[in-house]
Design a protein that fits this description.
Blueprint lengths: L3 E2 H6 L7 E5 L7 E2 L4 E2 L17 E4 L1 H9 L2 H12 L6 E3 L7 H10 L3 E4 L3 H16 L2 E5 L1 E5 L2 E7 L5 H10 L3 E4 L2 E7 L3 E6 L6 E4 L3 E4 H5 L7 E3 L2 E7 L14 E5 L2 E10 L5 H16 L4 H29 L1
Parallel strand pairs: 4-5, 5-6, 6-7, 10-17, 17-19
Antiparallel strand pairs: 1-3, 2-7, 8-12, 9-10, 9-11, 12-13, 13-16, 14-15, 18-19
Helix pairs in contact: 3-4, 6-8
Length: 324
């Protein structure tokens, strides 16, 4: 997993972290490896077994108050034991003043000590979101991402199959474009994939024969959105005579992205098929599945029940005729 230095976090301005350096400048090149934080409450009491040194350690009012109420010799002993774990960074919230013993300890060991004026809950939310965006895996996919009735639909397939044309038709029907041509996919905790457009291509779409168009300018801000959770992947494939396509919807395939599986549908394309309507219905059907209703499974259950009833009636008719 990639890391980010404490220096990068300290110099970040757009995330609104509001951080300043108090001590431990020698350790600014230390790395944070995971997008989670820790509040070292028990560690201040001397229990460091479950301490994660690669996480940011947030010290709020409770932690500092506890530290100040300990006997000086015990507080220094516990701090020395805590810093001996080689913590990547301490962050004090609510603009509080750090205890002098903490400043001495981090300076001696080269552990950065930062401060923010945010409350602990606010800062934890901000820093977690920032670290998730910077640390969690990401990739790019050649395709189109649209928001259809709240369902994030990823359209992909070979070049020229008609992905952008389908997306444009969906926009004309009132749905929203997220990204065209290149979709940047990021993993979010616990196991969710979000897609967004590249900075250069945002809101733009390429239509062969027409060129590059700006969806935001043509249809307004209601026709676009910045990012969307990917709920369904649809692969557009060329129709092949003689090929057996799924006709019941019982086959459940997955499209793998960053190790996670997205429900996958393969829709054959040929003249006369309204692909836009099929994609729209697929999104509605996905909503039903997420609510626990699967029409294909229900149809199969009804069919099997009807076959069982017919077989039972047929067997009893035969037995009855033999008895006569």
């Amino acid at each position: 997993m990639p890391g980010i230095t404490i220096q990068d976090i300290l110099s970040e301005k757009e995330a609104g972290l509001d951080l300043e350096l108090l001590a431990g400048e020698k350790g600014l090149l230390r790395h944070v490896q995971v997008p989670r934080i820790q509040k070292p409450g028990l560690a201040l009491a001397g229990y460091v077994t479950n301490l994660h040194p690669d996480r940011l350690q947030v010290l709020g009012s409770t932690e500092l108050s506890y530290l100040n109420h300990l006997p000086v010799d015990l507080a220094e002993k516990n701090l020395a034991k805590l810093c001996n774990v080689d913590i990547c960074c301490f962050i004090i919230t609510k603009g509080q003043e750090p205890p002098s013993m903490l400043v001495r300890e981090v300076e001696a060991r080269g552990i950065p000590l930062l401060r923010t004026h945010h409350q602990s809950s606010t800062f934890i939310s901000l820093i977690t979101q920032f670290l998730e965006e910077r640390l969690l895996p990401s990739t790019t996919i050649h395709g189109v991402l649209v928001d259809v009735l709240g369902v994030g639909v990823l359209l992909h397939g070979k070049s020229g199959i008609g992905k952008s044309e389908v997306a444009l038709d969906l926009v004309l029907r009132g749905h929203r474009l997220v990204a065209d041509d290149v979709v940047k996919v990021r993993m979010k905790l616990p196991a969710v994939l979000f897609g967004e457009g590249m900075d250069l291509l945002h809101y733009h779409m390429e239509i062969r024969g027409l060129g590059i168009i700006n969806i935001k300018h043509l249809f307004g801000v209601a026709a676009i959105r910045e990012r969307k959770k990917i709920d369904l992947a649809i692969e557009l494939v060329s129709w092949e005579d003689g090929h057996e396509y799924d006709r019941l919807g019982l086959e459940e395939e997955k499209y793998k992205v960053l190790g996670l599986g997205i429900p996958l549908l393969k829709i054959p394309v040929r003249p006369g098929r309204n692909i836009t309507s099929i994609v729209e219905v697929a999104a509605r059907n996905q909503l039903l599945k997420e609510m626990g209703y699967n029409s294909a499974v229900e149809f199969q259950d009804r069919l099997e029940k009807r076959m069982a009833e017919t077989a039972w009636l047929h067997s009893h008719t035969i037995i009855g005729d033999n008895l006569e």
